[in-house]
Structures are given as structure tokens and as C-alpha cells.
Amino acid sequence: MTIDQAESASEEKKIAIYPGTFDPITMGHLDIVKRAAELFDKVIIAIARNPAKTTLFSVEERLKMIQDCFPAENKKIQVVAVQGLIVNYAKSVGARALVKGLRALSDFDYEFQLALMNRRMERDVETVFLMTGLRWIYISSSIVKDVASHGGDVNGLVPDHVGDKLRAHFSK
Fold it and tell me: Which one is catalytic: 29, 62, 100, 165?
């Protein structure tokens, strides 16, 4: 590698994709985003459109809820909705990493399989696993929705505006 190539490579932004359904986004998700933003120059939160999953909120609602978690001037975080294979999207935007949060061994088993398949499809995109912070290890979007659906308190588990959306949805 020449000096010019090394300088060019060091100037290249390190972009990571944090994919998920985020139905809804939780404090655990935000913890992963915050920590990923310390490791990468840019983190793109990619809301997956997964026809196999039934979601509580539309893609547009999830997009808005996540965008509202970050100040507009925060250029390190971008939120997008994507369709198709995440690894293809990552390649198209020049991302070199997929960030995945892990809570338990069961998460690892599934995510490990996905990481290997993604690696097979696109060798230049790595998967980076971040352990969920201990305070959030028991939280999942499914559990939060279940608690909210029964009138339980989700304060502190999701951002306030997301809690408001959950309460509004289940009060219908």
C-alpha cells in the first residue's frame, strides 16, 4: 500500500449498519446505537421490512419514532427503511460492518448463523457483536409490547415518546 492509498483509506468513513425490526425501539437498542457510534464514524439504523413478521407499528411509524430519538444535527446516526438483504444494502452504501446486539446465548445461535450466511454472500462486510448492557439484558420489543398490551408500565424501557405511542395504541 502506498502512502497515498493509506491516507485515502484512513479518510474513508467507517460505516456500520444496525439492522432490525425495532417494533418498537427500546432502551436496549439505543444503548447499542450509542456504543456503535463510539466505534464507527456513521451508524445507519436499518429498519427491516420483513413480510414474515407481523408488526405493531408501520415502517413509517417506526422510522419516525427512531428519528425522534436523535437530534437532527446528529450526523453520525441515520435512520432508513430497507427491503431485501441487509448485506446487499450494506455493500451499496459502503458499510463494512453489521452491528448486532446480543442478550443471551439463544440470540448468539441465531445471529451466528446469519453472520456466516452474510459473510458467504459478501466477504467485505463483517458482523460485529455487541453485548447488551446489563441494565437492558432482559428487554426485548416483544416483552415491551406484551407489558404495554396489558396496561403495564413501560417507562424507562423505551423512550418516553415511544411509551406514549404504545399506550395510545393499546388504549384503542
Answer: 29
